[in-house]
Amino acid sequence: MDIPPPPRPGGPQQPPENPYAPPGQSPNGENRHGENRYGEPPYGGPPYGENPYGEYPATPPMGAQPPAGAQPPLAAQPLPPYQPWPQPPYFAPVPPPAQPPAQPPVNGLAIAALVLGILCFLPAVGLVLGLVALAQIKKRGERGKGMAVAGTAMSGLGVVLLVLSLVTGAVSDFADGFRDAARESSENGGTFSLDKGRCFDSLGDSLEGTAYDVDEVPCSGGHDGEVFATFRMTGGTYPGDSRITEVADEKCYALQDSYVMDTWAMPDDVDVYYFTPTRESWGIGDREITCFFGSTDEGGTLKGSLRRDETTLDDDQIAYLQAANVLNAAYASAPEEEYVDDDLPGHKRWAGRVSSALADEARGLRSHDWPATADNQVAALLRDIEAARKHWALAARATDADTFYVHYVAGDKLLGHEKAIAVRKALGLETTLSDEAPGGSGTETGAEV
Predict the structure, then answer these.
(1) Is the pLDDT of residue 339 over 70?
(2) Residue 272 backbone phi and psi in degrees, to 5
(3) Residue 211: its pLDDT value, please?
(4) At what angle do helices 145-165 and 123-140 cross, to 10 degrees?
(5) For residues 387 and 357, what is the distance between their CA atoms, to the nearest angstrom?
(6) Which of 143, 311, 362, 424 makes a 20 to 30 Å CA pair with 207?
């Protein structure tokens, strides 16, 4: 059997059969009947399955050496590294048109602070609202900071002006008003004030002790007290309760005759009282002492006014009472020692004061032009006054108690009531001597003093 020759070197070789070719088809795509299963090519090219460039060279068996002079097969070249397919440039999606951000709200307190600052109304409230608004704006990011700052500044200025006005003016007015009100008080309280001639009812059970207010009432009806004098003390340091009481007692008793010139008209149950400053009211400027008449009976009241001065008396009555009251003051200045033997020098000085007062009384009576209805009565009274004056002058020069008693008794007898009552009756004055009048008790005894 003939062995086919080996393939020609470099010659074309038949491709191996396709073991997976379908039945009736050659490995090259031809069917068993020599027909191309795809038919003739439409463009007249070589049938399908044939290499148009000729036969492929046969692949030498493994381990075979290529023939001499033959070109060695190309060595397998490594594939170039994989080059990634270039990606198109990335374009970020275009966002929709941006909407303008929402405006934060305006702080309401900032608006209120600005309004109050402009109006200068309640500056302290405007200042507080402005400060609170600034804190809220910073925390919440709200608008209105400029309004809050402006309102705070204007309200702060208003507070400063208000404080200055209080310091310079309003406080002074308040202090003056408080000081005036402080004078409206009570005995030993001195924290209220009543004018001369006013009548009042006490709010307490009596006129003694401390009272903080009184009710002013008409003098024509019943009342607890009637003011007859006021005066002011001096000094910066509080002198003490005892000293104030001493001054009030001395001056009030001395001033009563200028309000009730006719001492015979003073009721027996009336005495002198007074309102004085306290330590507390003294500290705020109270220096006033108020003198008034009040009843000595517990729960008693005064009826009608006691005023007997130039506002209620005529000229003749005033002339007589002025002359008589000079003697009254001297007569009331008797020494504390009742017996002459115990204080002869003191009684002699008292007799000298009475003698001088009688001389002054006589001059006063002579200097006035009396009406015809009272002229004779006044003349008779003058004769007794002159005679009495001589005895009082001799008593003032007495060398012993017995001599003093002789002249004292003679002079006092000449100052009896008969002549004085006649003049009073002619002038329309009180003719009944009260127990409270100096030197008198009833209508039978006592001198016109």
Answers:
(1) yes
(2) -95, 135
(3) 60
(4) 160
(5) 13
(6) 311
- To which H or E segment does residue 12 belong? strand 12-13
pLDDT digits (tens, 9 = 90+) for 52-79: 555 555 555 555 555 555 555 555 556 5
Q: Return the pLDDT at 285.
A: 86
Does residue 357 contact residue 327 with C-beta atoms inside 8 Å?
yes
Q: Do 358 and 383 touch, CB atoms closer than 8 A?
A: no
Whether the Cβ atoms of residue 319 and residue 368 lie closer than 8 Å to each other: yes
Question: 24: how many CB neighbours lie within 10 A of its CB?
Answer: 10
Given this model, what pLDDT does residue 106 score? 78
- Identify the burial level of 45 via C-beta atoms within 10 angstroms of its C-beta, where 0-12 means exposed, 13-18 middle and 19 or more buried: exposed
Note whether 279 and 287 are within 8 A (CB): no
Quick one: which of 218, 374, 187 has its CA closest to 291?
Answer: 187
Instruction: Flag whether pLDDT at 188 surpasses 60.
Output: no
Strands (E) located in 128-251: 199-202, 214-217, 222-223, 225-232
For the whole model, what pTM was predicted?
0.53
What one-character DSSP code corresponds to residue 10?
T
DSSP for 145-195? HHHHHHHHHHHHHHHHHHHHHIIIIIHHHHHHHHHHHHTB--TTT--B---
The residues, ordered by sequence, that sit 6+ positions from 329 with a Cβ below 8 Å of its Cβ are 257, 357
**300-318: average pLDDT:** 93
Alpha-carbon dihedral of residues 343, 348, 350, 352, nearest 10 degrees? -170
Q: Is 65 exposed, middle or buried (0-12, 13-18, 19+ CB in 10 A)?
A: exposed
SS3 15: coil
Instruction: Look at the block and give the residue holding tokens 């003016």.
Output: 169
Instruction: For residue 20, give the 3-state DSSP assignment.
Output: coil
* pLDDT (0 to 100) of residue 200: 92
Q: What gap in Å lies between CA 391 and CA 400, rounded to an integer?
A: 15
Q: Are 329 and 281 in contact (CB under 8 A)?
A: no
CA dihedral defined by 234, 235, 239, 245, rounded to 10 degrees? Answer: 0
State pLDDT tens for residues 156-176. Answer: 777 777 777 777 765 556 555
302/309 Cα distance (integer angstroms): 18
Q: How far apart are CA 132 and CA 151, in angstroms?
A: 11
